[in-house]
Design brief:
The structure is a homodimer of 114-residue chains. Chain A has 114 residues and is α+β, with helices and mostly antiparallel strands. Chain A has 5 helices and 3 strands, in the order H-H-E-H-H-E-E-H. Chain A is rod-shaped.
């Protein structure tokens, strides 16, 4: 159940374009809240709200340094999210393959009986 | 911008354990709403709400057949979601590699100057 909750938070955190861009920016290096807010033309409280969601998913950590808040990528990884998607796709593609083989066999049988 | 909105809906759809289980179930084959609701011990209207979110993300399609609603996986794929995560991870790992090389060089310099 813990795992579910981590996946829930990870996918929810990724469901917003601003939050995805914050992660992309932080993958290039740490930044302050105001540095993050600037390219979006967003207020600092508005941006902080997104950062909080990323913090709850452990994708970002923040640290107050004097009057500024420094943000960097956190210990949370996207491995579980990537793995869920990959497992699902493999199952689905496996099913399509089996369906394809079945249709192929049906065609051969039809050909043989004609 | 269209692409962003598709990714938003995909990730939001995946942020709930019931919806992820519905997708896993449908990857094994089509099912009616009541067949889907049963293992969760959930009411049909409750389950239908989740199915609607999956429909909006094009991950599921439904079709009314007489008195039952048949659900199957839709044309929406998780390729874009998987690709976003993969690109992000590569960038982040690339940065860690560069940081590792930098620290290695610093260590060598320190060793050489001692």
């Amino acid at each position: 159940m813990v795992k579910y909750s981590v996946l829930d938070r990870t996918f929810a955190a990724l469901s917003d374009p601003t939050r995805r861009e914050i992660l992309e920016r932080l993958a290039r290096g740490p930044a302050t809240i105001s540095e993050l807010a600037q390219p979006f033309g967003m207020s600092m409280p508005g941006l902080l709200k997104h950062v909080r969601v990323l913090e709850q998913a452990h994708l970002v950590t923040t640290e107050k340094q004097g009057r500024v808040r420094q943000c960097r990528l956190g210990p949370g990884q996207l491995d579980d999210a990537a793995q869920w998607i990959e497992t699902y796709r493999r199952r689905w593609e496996g099913r399509l393959d089996r369906l394809g083989s079945y249709l192929e066999r049906q065609k051969e049988r039809k050909g043989a009986s004609q």
